[in-house]
Amino acid sequence: MRPGLAWRLARRDLRGAIGSFRVFLLCLTLGVAAIAAVGTVRTAISEGLSREASRILGGDAEIRFTYRFATDAERAFIEAQSVRLSEIVDFRSMIRRDDGTEGRSLVQVKGVDDAYPLVGAVTLDPPMPLADAFAGSDGLPGLLAAPELFDRLGVDVGAQVALGTQSFVLMARIAEEPDSMGGGFGFGPRVITTRANLADSGLLAPGTLFDSAYRMVLPPQTDLDALRDTAESRFPDTGLRWTDRRNGTPGLSRFVDRMGAFLVLVGLAGLAVGGIGVAAAVRTYLDTRIETIATLKTLGATGSMIFLIYGMQIGLLAVIGVGLGLILGYGLPALLAPFLADRLPVPALFGLYPVPLAEAALYGLLAAALFSVWPLARARDTRAAALFRDLVAPGRVWPRWPVLATVAALAVGFVAVAALLSGLPRLAFWTGLGIALVLLILLVAALGLRRLAARLARGRAARGAPLWRQGLAALGGAGSEAVPVILSLGLGLTVLSTIVQIDRNFRQIIDGQLPEIAPAFFFLDIQPDQMPEFLDRATALNGGDRIETAPMLRGVITRINDRPAAEVAGEHWVLRGDRGITYAATPPTGTEITAGAWWDADHDGPPQMSFAAEEAEELGLSLGDRITVNVLGRDLTAEVTSFRTVDFGDMGINFVMIVDPKALAGAPHTAIATVYADAEAEAPLLRDLTGRFPNVTGIGVRAAMDRVGDALAALAAGTSWGASVTLLTGFVVLIGAAAAGERRRTYEAAILKTLGAQRRQILAGLALRSALLGAAAGLVAVLAGSIAAWAVMTFVMDGDFVPALGPAGLVILGGALANLAAGLGFAWRPLSARPARILRARD
Amino acid sequence: MLMAGLEQATTGSVHCLGADMTALDEDALARFRRDRMGVVFQSFHLIPTMTALENVAVPLELAGRDDAFERAAEELERVGLAARRDHYPAQLSGGEQQRVALARAAAPRPALFLADEPTGNLDGSTGAAIMDLLFSLRDAHGATLVLVTHAPELAARCDRTLSLTDGQLQRTAEAAE
């Protein structure tokens, strides 16, 4: 093997051939550009978050407690570490107009001290010093609110509102809140006042759910790891949660990372479609090189030399395609940076980031290699005798085993790289498997369609309709475009079809099924002494419909069998942050115990716990395990004595953990209630109950589900953008396939014209062929997409699946139109060429 | 084509220049042609993306010759195409293309020239010139020429003639010394 010579011959042979690689280059460029762009934006956001970390966090580090404030010892420790310290409290509540007019809204309340904000500044509209704003006017304390709240309540600056039992004056709109992203997913617009102003609101009574946060500005060169370790070891098992500027927004960073990784995986589907185009383009190119290859072999070139020559050519073009993709993938976000930075809800620092570009380049080169090896192996096996045969000399169908092994290794490598780089190995694995499976289904469908078309072309029905027969024979015969068209168009349409079907079905659940089974409201923070009256009023207002209540505390699972929980069960969602926990003497109505037994109603022994069966299995729990939960700063260790099914899908009161009543006896707590009601009873119910009990928060399930629906719509929109790259790449592949078939169609048209066919008849035949093939691709995509959507709805969302026929029809129509456009774009030459010239050239 | 190893015999054996062609695999046959055989086709089969000089140099380069381009230039001069060395096949006439093909076949100094209807695509006078050139190359290099042709007058210029009709060898004729 002589690489130097191979390189020289490769370069010479490539002269004037770059034009044959348009589809190849476009496919790779688009795929790489999409992945590079997603990676660049993701990194820009991560960098933005990291640069702004102190501002977003509100300090260098934060210690947070749920349900309680720091003890004296904890506070003394925090003060000793800090150069400056700010204490805030954060909770959600109901706000209402306090001027005799109706108007209320869920809000996320922040109670601050004089030191707030430690980093950055709160900007107000109208501008005024923060202290003046909090001081209020007319003897009432001041409240600041997000502009959204003014719209919701229909009020202006100066209006009087109430939080709990305390009245406030809305002093200004919050134009900018430096630490707005640190709080995570809020249920309502933000309002800010001082903790002192909240003292008489009745909203921070024992048992109420709130978070307290202690933000610290630390001396320079503080070792954050050491300080965190000191805090955690000094106050073990107190529910203390540490965050510092290195990861000030873990939830947000995680979301950005996951969304980015998810979009990269969607981008890989685009690259897979591009791969089909790459394979088709390489094959078409090498077909034009058969004579040269055979000549080289006649002159003494070995198979390995041929593989090396054309491998180098493809490699060089792959590098060019990847390079163009990187320029586009970096350039587009850079060009749009000013526009994006204004519209993104998070800070983004756009720049040239080598890591996401290298990642995209690696994917591009792997895809080029994966999809080129097979056609290259075919070229290697071209025999010198090809010089004396027609171009469609049938070679071996399957390549030699080393080639198959290389293809398999590259495919595995591709998925492994995706798993490694995305940080979502399971999703990457399933995406890889899904893409492979869909491609396989599409391939089988394409081969089936070829056979069917060939059979129909020979059948009685096609007799007397020569153009039909010609079209069907072209679909079914050698050189048929069925495989590249169905593979390229089908994968993009399958992704789109899956998204549309899931979206439609999920909306059906929200709009159709959920109102029938879900409660109208959750009411939180009901104090135990308020419960009898609450129940009386709610029952009177909801017409005797169902009301369920349960005591509610929140706790963090810290240990499993006396070992740190994260060590035992990793990053499971049940272990992340605090979870609701309740107690009950008897199993709640409808509970199904799957293992173990419920405690006696008057159980007086050591604490026992019933755990949700599915989550227990995921955590690897078994009966007899000991779970330690930190509730209100105290550890509660209980033995798991039963598992039970919990259906989170019914939106009722569901707890992962229930303990026996004695276990939590004496712990201050509030209650949660779900109230079922007809749509027309909802508004009076909320007005009455939150009016009567100002400390109680009512959350409308419909509004909450709308927010989930909005989040899903955003996800679907993001995924659709990813799918559109897949579709665009697919369209390029279609054009490539149509261009590759132009010579054949021109020849067919010449023969048909010689036999008396008119141009409009030939055009109709070409259109029919393209539309049929595109519609077939759409049909297969709809079937594959429906199967995927059914799996997601059934196994992930525990819902029913009903195929959405309208969008399915649109996908099929879209497939037909796309291929029709690509096909007709190359109809000019077959229609215009003079038969004599074409036929003479073939003689 | 069996003799050139471009096609594999399904039964029997083919011996050429002392080698059993049926025992060689595709790559071994390629090396055999590279080292010992110069093939000339009716359709020239020049590589369209390479200049005349590069086309002639290819077998020498494949053989690992450092002086491939110098030798190729000499060979082009010998066939009278020194002035056309940097032209691509599409810029050459049929006769010129076949002369490049002859130079390419002769450049590695093969023991055997194998010419398959070398004048089939050329007009009469050009064809005659090409044949003169082919025979002169054979004589200059002391090689054997196997010529496949339908033209009796060309066959008559050979030392020995084998006639193939319907797949059967009909007769052999030895040329008079």
How would you explain this protein's 3D organization?
The complex is a heterodimer of chains A (843) and B (177). Chain A is α+β, with helices and mostly antiparallel strands. Among the domains of chain A are: 61-221, no CATH class; 425-517 and 701-744 and 759-825, no CATH class; 547-675, no CATH class. Helix content of chain A is 55%, strand content 16%. Chain A has 26 helices and 21 strands. In chain A, the strands form two sheets. Chain A has a six-stranded mixed barrel with strand order 2-3-8-5-7-6. A six-stranded mixed barrel of chain A has the order 12-14-19-16-18-17. Chain A is elongated. With 177 residues, chain B is α/β, with parallel strands linked by helices. In chain B, the strands form three sheets. Chain B has a three-stranded parallel beta sheet with strand order 3-4-5. In chain B, strands 1-2 form a two-stranded antiparallel sheet. The model of chain B has no long low-confidence stretch (mean pLDDT 88). Chain B has helices spanning 26-36, 52-62, 68-78, 94-106, 124-141, 152-155; strands at residues 15-16, 19-20, 37-40, 112-116, 144-148, 160-165, 168-174. Chain B is globular and about 45 Å long. In chain B, α2 (52-62) packs across α3 and α3 crosses α4. In chain B, β1 and β2 (19-20) form a beta hairpin. Chain B is built from six helices and seven strands. Chain B has a domain at 32-147: Rossmann fold (3-Layer(aba) Sandwich). In chain B, 38% of the residues lie in helices and 18% in strands. The A-B interface holds A 2, 5, 8-9, 12-17, 291-292, 294-305, 383-385, 387-388 and B 1, 4-7, 26-27, 29-31, 33-35, 39, 41, 43, 45-50, 54, 58-59, 61-64, 104.
CATH superfamily of one domain in chain B: P-loop containing nucleotide triphosphate hydrolases
Helix content of chain B: 25-40%
Oligomer state equals heterodimer
Low-confidence stretches of chain A: 390-394
Radius of gyration of chain A: 33 Å
Main beta sheet strand tally, sense and closure of chain B: 3 strands, parallel
- Class per helix and strand makeup of chain A: alpha+beta
The beta-strand count of chain A equals 21
Secondary-structure element string of chain B: EEHEHHHEHEHEE
Output mean pLDDT of chain B: 88
Number of separate strands of chain B = 7
